[in-house]
Amino acid sequence: MKLNISKSRYSYILILLFIVLVLLVGFFSVIGTANINIVDTFRIVGSKLPIIKNYVDISDIEKSHQTIIWAIRLPRVLLGVLVGSSLSIAGAAFQGIFKNPMADPYVIGISSGAALGASIAIVLGINISFINISTISIFAFLGALGAVFIVYNIARIKNKVPVTTLLLAGVAIGQFLTAIMSFIMVIYSKDMAKIIYWTMGSLAGKGWDPLIKISIPVFISMVLINFHARDLNIMLTGEESAQSMGVNVEKTKIYVLILGTFMVSMVVSIAGIIGFVGLIIPHIVRILLGPDNRILLPASALVGGIFMVAADTIARTVISPVEIPVGIITALFGGPFFLYLLRKSKKQ
Asked: What is the per-residue pLDDT across 187-205, written as a single tens digit (0 to 9) for each?
């Protein structure tokens, strides 16, 4: 497989995508019931930033508008970027190590495992943190790791993971874990509302605190996954060939799988189950920019962030003041796309 994109070319593409993402963060922060223009939005944000705040006067802007932008809309949009980026880069990485276009955190049961782990933490009422990571996030990670371990081993036939067995194993385990979660809801009915929230996915009402807690470990995981881009490229030529070229294939798989699962569990513990993002975005980026993981992984993160904030803006405005869980919006896009990929795979 020929991977000949020049470094300068994909650097330009990534810079362009980053600029688009920043502009859209400002644009989507403006959209909402309260009428706040984009200039005031940037002034409010600037007034909170070091050094810049000394040159920005926002005394003429209503206090309520300052609160809406800084305490509600901006952290929500940034959380959307983090969630979309995490799910997309995890999807791209999983598709690389499984060599399977259907490998998405939602489809192969990782999101369900994370949600089950988070649900158990809720009903147990344990509320401690480790290195600024909450108990819910830790349980979500353990649940996600258990799910991917089971799915991978069920689907694997020798050293290959065929599409059909991966899908069947992912769907079966995902449904099984969802059933356990439903059972927990019945037993612990007082926590039912919180657990249902996890199953639908939403970015509403989070604020800065959860965003700050998970952003650093998630960002570090993204960077570490990108360090494996070259090895993933070599693995595209076949595992035996990659071994002969010095790539430790099994170790690479385990690293990428753990890092991706960790990212997904962190964002699921905050935003709930948001499906299909890790399926749609890597495919679109791969069609537009090619299979080179050196650009596929970071570009998927940026495009995933753009997609998620757009989907969340639709979720909170399309039938305002009623808000639709963003997981429903992504499923409306992802369901038909999944069927398209399934049909394409069947033809091949």
From this structure: 877 767 767 766 777 787 7
